[in-house]
């Protein structure tokens, strides 16, 4: 039986993506070859890469607006250092918002390159909210933020307007909601949440911001080299890129980001509604900053842990325990998770209430 998969990532993908990916491993495009055994320079794979790159831009409304999409290796974590390497001037500075563990990881890497100003941090409150009301130094080379904090279940609802490049780690909410994506100059996201399997990272770059740092950048870390090579500077992660393309096609057929946002809002409203209604539970994140992707919540009385854990497991739910730094539970409701799965969880929460 297929589980109700609440894993934070790698995570649920559309069932048709699993099926089409499996087929491509056996016989890609009726070629008599597996996608795993063809050259990345073959006509068929170049077509995959080209379509994935243009579809990513199309879905975000960024086509024809001076942006390039790349599928790189190294995870979102490699972008933590590629961003300062490409954007921070020698002797320059960068501004970062510290809203969680991953934001803090990005800050750590930026410090290797120069002055890294943390404009605000919610670390003291275990990152239970998004810091607000901060000032970004006007002379920073760029501002970096994390749109969705996967571990703590917070999400930025309003982004600042600044006179400098804005870089955003959207690993855990890319393609989940409509934003004015032209506000951002670099968007990056590990594939393994809303886009595909682990192994590739989508990086969207506004070309005009590149080439200004004055640094000599090793080729593999240089966005300009990757753009020039049309995201084939070295062998790309062929299969993850193909599966990502299938997910992007699925999303387009569904009606795009606006359509999936409606579904995501309905799922989040259903679950947070129950967290707030049910006297046994409480949310872990500040209400106004709650993430529609990762809902973090706790039992008010941990004496009910065993009963609850037994019940959700019996209902076919998987991947619900919270990250160790928050505890409790984390329900990751990525694009591919159906609302029926959320209803199953809500029913279990209600059943616990009548049982105890
Ligand atoms: N940023 C965010 C917001 C994440 O959730 C993660 C991984 N869960 C990362 C960065 C790190 O991504 P990767 O493992 O692809 O390096």
From TrEMBL:
Its main location: cytoplasm. It is found in: Cytoplasm. Binds 1 pyridoxal phosphate per subunit. One of its GO terms (molecular function) is O-phospho-L-serine:2-oxoglutarate aminotransferase activity. Residues 5-345 form the Aminotransferase class V domain. Its EC number is 2.6.1.52. The modification N6-(pyridoxal phosphate)lysine is found at residue 193. Pathway: Amino-acid biosynthesis; L-serine biosynthesis; L-serine from 3-phospho-D-glycerate: step 2/3; Cofactor biosynthesis; pyridoxine 5'-phosphate biosynthesis; pyridoxine 5'-phosphate from D-erythrose 4-phosphate: step 3/5. SUPFAM superfamilies: PLP-dependent transferases. It catalyses: O-phospho-L-serine + 2-oxoglutarate = 3-phosphooxypyruvate + L-glutamate; 4-(phosphooxy)-L-threonine + 2-oxoglutarate = (R)-3-hydroxy-2-oxo-4-phosphooxybutanoate + L-glutamate. One of its GO terms (cellular component) is cytoplasm. Catalyzes the reversible conversion of 3-phosphohydroxypyruvate to phosphoserine and of 3-hydroxy-2-oxo-4-phosphonooxybutanoate to phosphohydroxythreonine. Homodimer. This is Phosphoserine aminotransferase. It comes from Flavobacterium gillisiae. The lineage of its organism: Bacteria, Pseudomonadati, Bacteroidota, Flavobacteriia, Flavobacteriales.
């Amino acid at each position: 039986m297929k589980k109700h998969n609440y894993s934070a990532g790698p995570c649920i993908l559309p069932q048709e993506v699993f099926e089409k990916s499996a087929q491509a491993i056996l016989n890609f495009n009726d070629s008599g070859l597996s996608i795993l055994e063809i050259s990345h320079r073959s006509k068929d794979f170049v077509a995959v890469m080209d379509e994935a790159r243009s579809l990513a831009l199309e879905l975000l409304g960024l086509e024809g607006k001076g942006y390039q999409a790349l599928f790189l290796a190294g995870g979102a974590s490699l972008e933590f250092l590629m961003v300062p390497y490409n954007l921070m001037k020698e002797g320059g500075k960068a501004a970062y918002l510290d809203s969680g563990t991953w934001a803090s990881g990005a800050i750590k890497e930026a410090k290797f390159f120069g002055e890294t100003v943390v404009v605000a941090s919610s670390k003291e409150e275990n990152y239970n909210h998004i810091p607000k009301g901060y000032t970004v130094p006007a002379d920073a080379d760029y501002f970096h933020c994390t749109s969705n904090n996967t571990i703590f279940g917070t999400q930025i609802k309003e982004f600042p307007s600044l006179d400098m490049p804005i870089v955003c780690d959207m690993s855990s909410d890319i393609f989940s909601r409509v934003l004015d994506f032209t506000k951002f100059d670099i968007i990056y996201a590990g594939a393994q949440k809303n886009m595909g399997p682990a192994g590739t990272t989508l990086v969207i770059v506004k070309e005009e911001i590149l080439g200004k740092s004055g640094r000599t950048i090793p080729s593999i870390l240089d966005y300009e080299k990757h753009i020039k090579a049309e995201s084939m500077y070295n062998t790309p992660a062929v299969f993850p890129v193909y599966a990502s393309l299938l997910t992007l096609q699925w999303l387009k057929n569904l009606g795009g980001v606006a359509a999936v946002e409606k579904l995501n809002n309905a799922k989040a409203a259903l679950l947070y509604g129950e967290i707030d209604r049910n006297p046994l539970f409480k949310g872990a994140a500040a209400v106004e900053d709650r993430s529609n992707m990762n809902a973090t919540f706790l039992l008010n009385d941990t004496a009910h842990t065993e009963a609850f854990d037994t019940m959700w497991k019996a209902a076919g739910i998987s991947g619900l325990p919270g990250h160790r730094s928050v505890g409790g539970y984390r329900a990751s409701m990525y694009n591919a998770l159906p609302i029926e799965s959320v209803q199953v969880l809500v029913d279990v929460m209600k059943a616990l209430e009548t049982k105890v």
